[in-house]
Amino acid sequence: MQFTAPLISAFALLAATQVLGAAVELPRDVAGILVATDPYYACNCPNNCSYKEGSGCRFYSGPSDNSRILKGKCHRKDGKLTCVP
């Protein structure tokens, strides 16, 4: 009886860890996740802080993730990096 409770607890903890690990996995096609919401964020932080002028960039052409994806290069515009298709 004294060993039953720790054994059940250890099993429950292991099962919970496996469930959480499965929920965090990324889909095989992560390209859709890597598309910015507008031209500014396609070349700037939080996700593209290391981008420089000439870096390749992508952003959605409209307000929805069902919008067309535009590809371009980062260029300085008014002192800020912006993705220009």
Spell out the blueprint of helices and strands.
Blueprint: H1 4-24, E1 56-60, E2 69-77, E3 80-84
Antiparallel strand pairs: 1-2, 2-3
Write structural notes for this entry.
With 85 residues, the chain is α+β, with helices and mostly antiparallel strands. The chain has one domain. It has one helix and three strands. It has one helix spanning 4-24; strands at 56-60, 69-77, 80-84. It has a three-stranded antiparallel sheet, with no helix packed on it. A hairpin with an 8-residue loop joins strand 1 (56-60) and strand 2. The longest helix has 21 residues, at 4-24. The protein is elongated, with a radius of gyration of 22 Å. It starts with a helix and ends with a strand.
